[in-house]
Design goal:
With 49 residues, this protein is mainly alpha-helical. The protein has a domain at 20-49. It is built from one helix and no strands. The protein has one helix spanning 2-40. The longest helix is centred in the middle third of the chain and has 39 residues, at 2-40. 0% of the residues are buried.
């Protein structure tokens, strides 16, 4: 029973890590898009050509 609990918790943490890495990837992609968008934006709010 103890072994089962240990192996179960190991699986859970692996799934959590996978979810976290997916979330991190999405966040970094959004940040990248946000930064690129802001770089193109001029100080007065207009977009560069």
């Amino acid at each position: 029973m103890q072994d089962l609990l240990i192996s179960q918790s190991r699986t859970d943490s692996r799934e959590v890590n996978e979810l976290d890495s997916i979330k991190a990837r999405i966040i970094s992609r959004d940040l990248e898009r946000y930064i690129i968008h802001n770089l193109r934006m001029l100080p007065d709010g207009r977009l560069e050509d």
